[in-house]
Each structure stands twice: as C-alpha cells, then as structure tokens.
Amino acid sequence: MTATIHRLDRRTIDSIAAGEVIERPASVVKELIDNALDAGAGVIRLAIENGGIRLISCEDDGQGMSPEDALLALESHATSKLSSTDDLFQLKTLGFRGEALPSIAAVSRFELRTRTHEDASEGYRVAAEGGKIVFSGPCGIAPGTMVTCRDLFFNTPARYKFLKSDAAEGSAVADITGKAALARPDVSFRLDRDSERREVLYTPGNNDLLSAIYAVFGADTAGAMIPVESETPPVRVSGYVSSPEAARHNRSRQIFIVNGRVIYSATLRAAVEEASKTWFMRGNFPQLVLNVAIPFNLVDVNVHPQKLEVRFWDERAVFRAVYRALRAAFEQGARLVEAAWPGASSAEVSDGRKAGTIESRDKNEPVSKPVEPRVVLPPNSSAGLFAYNGADSRKTDKTIPSRVRLPMVGEESEKCSADDHAARPARPSEDAAPMADEQNRIAAMMGTFGTIDTLGRSRLIGTLFDTYILLDSGDAMILVDQHAAHERILYEEMLLRRKENPSGNAPGQVLLIPVHVTLDEAEKAVLEDEGDYLRTLGFEYEPFGGQSVVIRAVPSGGKGQPPADMDPAKAFRAALDQLEICRSDGRTVDYTEILHEIACKAAVKAHDRLSESEIRQLLSRLADLTNPYHCPHGRPVAIKMTKPEIEKLFGRIV
Question: Around 157, how many Cα atoms within 13 Å sit in the side-chain half-sphere?
C-alpha cells in the first residue's frame, strides 16, 4: 500500500509559515515594528509605496545584529527572545516568533542591513528572494537595522489577488503604525508613503501619551480626552477616554493595550460598553486608549497566531477593573456647560468657572442644578410678557448661555448628540415596545398633538432654550424641537429628490463657498474606494492636496434653502462614517442609513438661534412632510400641552 503521508518541500513549508503571519502589507509592518521595539529602538522610520505592496521599509536605531545573527535571523525558528518553554508563558517581548523574518523573506524580495553599536566599523547586508539568500556581505549603514521588503507576494499570486486597493492597504499600514505609536509613546514613529515620501504620521516620542494621541487622532480628539487612572490589584488601568461630546459612530478608535501589546478583547470591549451606558448616546462610542497592566504570568498571548488576542486568568476580574476605571473617569471628568442667569452673583462664576465654559464637575457637587428657563422672542412677536432683546438672532447670547445636561445614571442613551436632544425625556429602553410606551406616556401627560395643520393656525411665541419653538394654538401650547424637525425635513426631502431622479441618484446643491475638509487615513481610504457612491448621494468634491478635499456640492434638501446652512463638512463626514461602518461590518450599504446620518449631522442643533422667518419656513416645510411627527430616529418632533393641563398646574382648576 502506497504511503499517503509525505514530507513537504521547503518552499511549501515556508509558504505555510508565511501564511500564518503575513496576510497583507500591514502584517509585515507589524512584525518589523515589533522587532524594532524589542531591539530597543527610540526612533522608527517607515516608508511604503503602493500601500506597501511595492515597497515596505523599516529603519530603526535599536541594537543591531552581528553578521552571524543576521544570517540566523532568516532561518526558521531562530530567535533571541526565547530560551526555554517556560518563556512562552511569561512573554515580555513582542515579536518573539522565529518565523517572522523568514516568512517575510519567503514571499518578497527581501533585504536586511544591520550594524551593532559596539564599535563596529561596518554593517552587514543579507538579501533574499522568495526565501533564498542571494547575497550576504559587508555594507555601510548607521548603527541599527534597516529592513526592506519589495514586491510582496510576487511569487504567490494566489495570495496577491486577495489584496485590497493601494489606498485600503496603506490605510491598514497607517492604522497598525498608529496603534504601535499609542502603545509606545516613548518611541518616535514616522511613516511616509509613495515615492515622494509624503509624511502620513509623525509622533514626537516624548513619552507623553496625550501627545501621541494628538499625533495619531488629531487635536480635536486629544482636546476631548479624560485621563483614566485606576488600580485594582493585580490589574492597573491607565490612559485616556473621550468625553461624550467627542463620541464616534464606530469603535475604530478604541485601542486596548495589554502589557505593551495592542490586542483585541471581547472582555475589554464589553467593559467599555457597560461603563459607557447612560453617558453616551445609543450608537455612539467613546474614543479611548487604555493601557492594562497585568503580571505576565496571568496573561496568555498564545491563543492567536498573530498574538492579536489574549486570554486572562480571570476575565471577570479584568472586566471589573476596566469598568470601574472608566466609570470613575466619567464621573470625575463630567463636564457641563455652566449657566449664569440674572441675579447670579459674580462670586458664583469667579472661582475659575466662567459662565458658559466647560468645566469638570467636583465629585461632591450635585450632578444637575435647577436652571431658569430663558425665552427668546423673535421680532414682531405679539407676546407682551417679555421684551425682545435686539441682538442678531444668529449669534449666541454670551451673557445667558443655556445648559447642556449629559445623560445621567439610570437614563437610557439616544442616538443623536447631547446638544441635539438636550433636556428632552430620556428613552427608558432600546426596545420598540418601551419606546412606544414612553411616547404614550408623554402623550397622556402633555395631551395629543393632533394634526400637523395645527402649526399653521398657531401664533408664534418664541423659542425656549434656543431649542424648542413655542406656539399658541388657542387652546394649547405646542413645543417643536427645532433639531428633530429640521432633521426630519432634510431626510424626507433628500429621500424624495433621490426617488424623483430617474437615474436614482440624488441631485447636489452647489455651495456658494466651497468647504475644505481634512481626512484621516481611514476616511481617505473610504473616499477613494466609495467616491462614486458618494456622488450618487449628491456630493461633489475634488482632492485639494495631501489629506484635504474641497466639497463643492452637498445633497439637495429640496424646496428652498434650509432654515440654517447645512454644514457640508459634517454631512460629508457622516456619510464617510456610515460607509466605514458598513465596510468594517461587511454589510451592504443602505443609503437610507447614510441619509439618516447626514440629516442628523447637518440639521440645526439645539442652541442654534433662528430668526422668525427661518422658524416659519421650517414649520411650513414640516407641514408638507409624509411623517412630520417623528425624527428619523423615532423621537417626537412636537408635543402639546392643553390649556386645562396648564391650568391644573397653576391650581386654577382641580
């Protein structure tokens, strides 16, 4: 009987080993960064071309290798980072696998240049193609190591065909590099792309995590970060988490670092989800960079071929530690817009807390204080109890700002931002039935709204908190949420214009003044891959050099102009965010979801002061809608309080 088991040839063995570690250019970059960090590098310079497919270069100033070590590094299962089986269970290095460099060399045209710091007069160079060494000998190089990988997967076309576009692969490389920079803020990283060496990322390496966050995620994110610092032995948690105002619609900026290694963990993600409840709106996620330090013998990093996942000795203990650390950070870093109103003494705002500025709440202060309602009347209003202040209706009143209250413990989150739905009833549950119960409760308490025609017959009183439009219908008071109303208007009109167009594409509304937007690598990758789809939504844009684009048209809102200018940048980013979510989840793009997000981001917000003509235009357009009673997320657009209900509150009737 012929034997069916046989030894594989060396090339097949190398290909299998490479397949375990090297899936795409980002996999190569990760292994090279890990090796550079383990070599004690203080500066790591990376360069890629064609998303890393054509070229990957990694240069570091760490401890170099002798000629003997350089040759051994290209042999399978050769490493300086393990000496016994026990070392596997207390790993303190990153790229311990001996297959890394041999696997990279097996699927590329590979070159290694290295030189030690110990008075070596020259360096050593090893070149290989498809895993076979074709040259070795002396070379000139500064102390450290430089690895160059060209033509990735040139000899394995089956794997090459699974690579994505250059933009997507480059974005993945930038993502891996950014995560490494966040894990090691003491090391300076630089990433250049394409032949002109355009700088994509640069971190100072000053050992300040917030500086690294600034470099990787930008100034807006860094400015919204709250420090996290907690220790529940044997677990120590540190880092930063964003305030609810800086939430995102996906989890792409949630970075977990365990003992210096960036990992994915369902346990840590669940802890963040639980800790964020009542602080972040539904569908919004905090940005965070969390360092979790645990004794090495209590973490197993060998559960994933690429060490992307770990197993903890006690999942619940780690969950509790992260949960408590984040809750403490949210509570201590809770920020409210403090309100000052007539009669407040100067002492109340002189102790470092200016009226209308964002301040950290003292943990001994009550979470929420009563705030006096402020009614602003539009010009020519017939109401006589209040005097209209003649300031420009577009400008925010600097002397009597409104308060934005963040969701408190026990309330359910909403999908829109805190500014958009400030001070409205909180949703008790995410389920449809409790949502209906809440709307029924509001209707019972405030009276039924009736038909939208009531708006046309109502007298305009003014606005409350620069958020709610007040109307007198003769037998009731009606409050209209200006954001929810405008959001519904934009959504339905964009949807209608798209359906009316024979091609199925939405027409664009040309901007009088084009708007420039700076994108990060992930957003730019989405834009390059989904540009045609964005144009079907009504966007018109063009590159403006580097990471910037200029927006020249946005989806048309239908009749006339919006009561307040649609924010093109926010609308554009909302579309990119939703497309990125669909890509990451592997879902088919649903244009109605994108229109939801565009409408939410582009609509007027709470505290945007509208003129009388803008209010009347908004109410007129609202009356023409198919469903003017709820915003696209199910929130009520308007509620009504009848005259008998008001008189009961004042004791006029029993």
Answer: 0
How far, in Å, are 29, 63, 610 from residue 177 at the CA level?
8, 20, 45
Same domain, 308 and 327: yes
607 Cα distance to chain centroid:
25
Q: Are residues 327 and 404 in the same domain?
A: no
Q: Tell me the CA distances in angstroms from 256 to 201, 319, 637, one per residue in order.
A: 20, 13, 39
Asked if 188 contacts 205 with a C-beta cutoff of 8 angstroms, the reply is: yes
Nearest 5°: the CA angle 237, 216, 278 is 50
Same domain, 187 and 98: yes
Select from 557, 628, 558 the least CA-distant residue to 598. Answer: 557
Q: What is the DSSP letter of 234?
A: T
Q: Residues with Cβ < 8 Å from 477, sequence gap 6 or more? A: 461, 470, 471, 640, 641, 643, 646
Are the CB atoms for 52 and 22 separated by under 8 Å?
no
Domain shared by 653 and 576, yes or no: no
Residues 64 and 188 occupy one common structural domain = yes
Q: Are the beta carbons of 124 and 114 closer than 8 angstroms?
A: yes
DSSP code for 7: P
Task: Report the SS3 class of residue 291.
Answer: strand
How do residues 75-119 score in pLDDT, each as one tens digit?
A: 875 555 544 545 444 555 555 444 588 889 999 999 999 999 877
What letter does residue 117 receive in the DSSP assignment?
S
Question: In what order do the strands lie in the sheet containing 235-242?
Answer: 225-232, 235-242, 288-293, 254-258, 261-263
What is the per-residue pLDDT across 144-174, written as a single tens digit (0 to 9) for each? 999 999 999 999 888 888 899 999 999 999 9
Residue 337 within any structural domain of the chain: no
